[in-house]
Amino acid sequence: MRVLITGGAGFVGSHLVDALLARGDQVTVLDDLSTGRHDNIRHHLGDPNFEFVMGSILNDAVVDDVVRRADVVMHLAAAVGVELIVGRPLESLATNIRGSEIVLEKCHKYGRKVLVTSTSEIYGKNDSDLLSEDDDRILGSPLKTRWSYSEAKAIEEVLAYSYWREKGLPAVIVRLFNTVGPRQVGHYGMVVPRFVEQALKGAPITVYGDGTQRRCFCHVADVVSALIGLVDSREAEGQVFNVGANEEISIAGLAERVIEQLDSDSSIVKVSYDDAYEEGFEDMPRRVPNTARVRGLLGWTPQRNLADIINDVAADITSRSS
Ligand code: UDP
């Protein structure tokens, strides 16, 4: 089977590439290396089962060619990371809306099954106990750029779902909650690699806001096994699935855990949201997924905990800087 992975040089995408090649699939990666990195896939160059196409999902002709040659498409290419979305909203909107539309159009044209990766940002400020797939979205003004990511990914979901409902395209939607692990970089805002890097350097750990906001961090290896299980499942078609961890921690608590586990001398500094992002930035106080649906279908639960995550991220950062 040839699998096309858009965004395959990115953090999650490149781990998916590793896993699919390891099970004997052929893999084509389409990536424009905007946030993806060549280093993430370099180890596969020369493998006859692996092909790298440098290009954007906004390039109609390129997408047409790579989708035509694939059996299945896993669409991960997106402008991601709060800092990027807030800093370059127009470019982010074009990639996430128009780019996804092109990918889906081509999947429909050639009848290719597609898995679309969405995000927990879909739920916006809904901080109810466990977020289930059918829960409401609570968003701020669209003029606050933070929410434009949620809007764009929602449109992508509606497009995928409508292609399934109206045109019979086999499509699966996955909402990824905070996903972390080796190869993730901190400069797009992602908190775990930032804290680990700061701790390893003995630099101050930058906690945004008061640090009481809570998240659940899932190891990328667990996320990849859910993505593969879902793309392989006929039953998953036409459905949306939350994928994430259930171990909840406050961001201040995370800072302390990282310092303790890495035996670091770092101090903790509080940074206001206005200084960290933009004036009037709204953060999500809490985000915990209900993953009963994916567990029910695949029996999937995360196998790695936060200690494993901190270890693996630290080992990755250390090996890259040596
Ligand atoms: N965060 C932080 N310090 C940092 C980077 C992020 O306190 O240096 C906070 C951020 O404000 C958010 C949480 O950590 O409350 C998770 O941020 P991330 O960008 O990893 O993911 P999000 O859940 O916001 O998509």
Explain this structure.
The chain is of the alpha/beta class. It has a domain of 215 residues: NAD(P)-binding Rossmann-like Domain (Rossmann fold). It is built from 11 helices and 13 strands. Strands 3-2-1-4-5-6-11 form a 7-stranded parallel β-sheet, with helices on both faces. The protein has a two-stranded parallel ribbon with strand order 7-10. α1 links the parallel β1 and β2. α1 packs across α7, α4 runs parallel beside α5 and α6 packs parallel to α8. It starts with a strand and ends with a helix. The model has no long low-confidence stretch (mean pLDDT 95).
Descriptive terms for the model:
binds uridine-5'-diphosphate, globular, two-stranded parallel ribbon, 13 strands, Rossmann fold, single chain, 322 residues, alpha/beta, 11 helices
Q: What is the count of helical runs? A: 11
The low-confidence parts are none
**Overall morphology:** globular
The name of the CATH topology of the domain at 2-180 and 218-244 and 290-298 is: Rossmann fold
Radius of gyration: 19 Å
**Multimerization state:** single chain
Q: How many runs of DSSP E, i.e. beta strands? A: 13
- Element string (H = helix, E = strand): EHEEHEHHEHEEHEEEHEEHEHHH
The end-to-end distance, rounded to whole angstroms, is 37 Å
